[in-house]
Amino acid sequence: MRTDTPLTIYRKDYTPPGFWVETVEMGFDLDPEATHVATRMTLKRNPASQNKSLLLYGEALRLVQLRMNGKALTKRAYTLGPGTLEINNPPDHVTLEIETVTHPNLNTSLMGLYVSDGNFFTQCEAEGFRKITYFPDRPDVMAKYKVMLRADKEKYPVLLSNGNLIEEGDLGDGRHYAVWEDPFKKPSYLFALVAGKLVCQEEKYTLHSGREVLLQVWVEEGNLDKTQHAMDSLKRSIRWDEERFGLELDLDRFMIVAVGDFNMGAMENKGLNIFNTKYVLANPRIATDTDYANIESVVGHEYFHNWTGNRVTCRDWFQLSLKEGLTVFRDQEFSADMIGTDSARAVKRIEDVRVLRQAQFPEDAGPMAHPVRPDSYVEINNFYTVTVYEKGAEVVRMYQTLFGRDGFRKGMDLYFQRHDGCAVECDDFRRAMADANGRDLSQFELWYCQSGTPHLKVDTHYDEVAKTYAITLTQSCPATPGQAQKQPYHIPVAVGLLDGSGRDLPLHLGGVEIDGPAPTTMVLELTQQRQSFEFRNVPVHPVPSILRGFSAPVVLEIDYSDAELAFLMAHDSDPFNRWEAGQRLAMRRLLALADAVQKDHALSDSELQETALGKAYHKILSDRMLDPAFCELALTLPSETVVAEQVDVVDPHAIHAVRQFMRRSLAAAMRVEWEVAYQANRTPGSYSPDAAAAGKRALKNLALSYLMELDEPQMHLLAQGQYDQANNMTDRIAALSALVNSSAAGRDEALARFYAEFEQEALVIDKWFALQAMARTTDVAKVRDLMAHTAFTLKNPNRARSLIFSFCNGNPAQFHAVDGSGYEFWADQVIALNAINPQVAARLARSLDRWRKYAPALQEKMQAALKRVAATKSLSKDVLEVVTKSLAN
């Protein structure tokens, strides 16, 4: 906790470690009240460092003994400060023995060694290992680890750590032991141990090389029937990485362990991945289609880290996107490849871009804006952000857009050839891509070091006589905290041209020779502030399709008419841009209605069916040849968060009102079509989470949600019937959500029945809380009532997120109550969470970081809430950094 102004860490101040650690041996006597940890490490001086002393980090530890080269050190030989242990003038070669005591049962931060439901778990990224023992806890210090775990055999029959099990046995006093050895060097943040009463599903798996490995998924008793999908996802991940990138599992076994108390989604500890139960446990009774897809994605993500993060890791935490952005890209490609079909791949791409726009674009425009490779931080946990992850993935994707799959693979191969077993920088990855493809990517570094979302303006001109079509691209980037001026980015812009019938025209770019048939999509490389590109032999005035596949993370500014957007929505061969055209049409309508509300004008839907939007929606819903999953995305209006980003001053109540008005209007105007779509997309028979079935359920449940906007008894019965007859959680939770957001008489009874049926399923009860938190009628008083429920606890991050985060981030109209009660509630919860789990508290603190974008009356109340949190005594540096930056910028 904070006792004074926390130190800001700067990337420019990086210095090499004074000592390298060669080997680490650790012995744990596991006890929830007081775990004794004995550590012996061998170190050698780093000749590249100017540091003469040996600096170790430690937090919340009791130092019992410290020995160097066999001799106990007196207090004169070292300095024990807040969070550090510094040994003065050590020799060049050191064997250091340290005994520490930690208290896992008191560790509510869930960093380091902690207890969950009577079992031991660890989380060491980013700086949790220092809560276990004193150590040079930084990612560029890599060593080989050998670990012995000792514990009561009855209470903790399973003892796991990184690497391979080399020995186990009884100690003769009711305790037993296990020895694990990791044959690969790793940084301390990848250390892990698990001990407790667990059961596992295991399978032998044969790699492409013919080597057999053991795969295990460990869970608490009673959850073994929910592990098959995670196991199948792991096997698919292993096979995909072999086939796509030639990367093979390097250990004899690979383990996944699920825990209910976890700050993150999962953690890639070498060979022992620890997961939030949310991303492991699934069966049709408790998991939705989205849960199944997320489990596959997260299992893939953590497995892919075995190479992009573990075998090659980060020099320092400023390089976090080196592993996270790259691995998010890899898991996105994996999920798309597992789906297979082009239309389903497009759905995955659209979903990824929606996340970027709803979360990362606002971050880029707010006080916490930072580059993909940050220049400074106060608390590194605050930089596990959508900028580092999702925007970082978009930066990696641009390499593939520029060089193609084969060129990207060449860059990856060179990257591993150069850096396997090393801790490196983002620039090393960029250089590997450049060298492998013979390109100068020096300008591309700006994607790593400049914050903010670039804006791309498009102007066009058609010369009917010369049959040429010119596209002029102009880029700019708004000022962000600490960066007023921006240099031009290297932006790949994928374009196509459509003729009057909606067919793609062959592209002939001036100055570019093409072998073979002319392409219908071409990537233009914008490297200047303004550039023009001229296409020749264009027989008719085309409609341009710009930024196909969302080829760069930018805001596209182009003056399409409503007719052109409707045309693209109906005909564009690029599914992403087809979806994008519909979103632009809907956004125009929403913004016009919001403006009308703010001017006290009456809203009218009488002309909706005659508008370009109404006709386009009708065409999409009536087209039986379209993929249902694509239709569901195309017919979903932009979220209130995305709409808010399009206005200078946010009125959350007006935005909510017009979006609901639009939904009711579309429901009434296309009632028959929605009813037909509902019936046509039923999925009778046994449940399957495959993409085709999931897509049909998505469109069916969207149709149900629209029909429920009519709020008629007939539709209430339809939703109630679906709830009663559902054989899977996807349909059940969709029906319950529809009922909760209606005036149906049976909504409270349905909520009670749902809770009674799933009371013992923690992940389902999380859904129950979240659904109510985001309901239109749920105000602050209702959320406080739900917090008093016996099933609620602030100490479990999943439960806190399901109710508090869902309300503050997913129910803007109620959270931004005009009386400021939502902000008072937010401050209460940030302060309460700060005392329990600073990392979770800091995440919640981000809910108000865009306060300056709101109307003055709301701004004043938000600012007061932020100041109240900032004035709290013993505020963690996690929360302090967020509120300080929010108030300052």
Automatic annotation (TrEMBL):
Its cofactor is Zn(2+). It is an enzyme of class 3 (hydrolase). It catalyses: Release of an N-terminal amino acid, Xaa-|-Yaa- from a peptide, amide or arylamide. Xaa is preferably Ala, but may be most amino acids including Pro (slow action). When a terminal hydrophobic residue is followed by a prolyl residue, the two may be released as an intact Xaa-Pro dipeptide. It comes from the Bacteria. Aminopeptidase N is involved in the degradation of intracellular peptides generated by protein breakdown during normal growth as well as in response to nutrient starvation. The gene is pepN. It comes from Noviherbaspirillum autotrophicum. PANTHER family: PUROMYCIN-SENSITIVE AMINOPEPTIDASE. This is Aminopeptidase N.
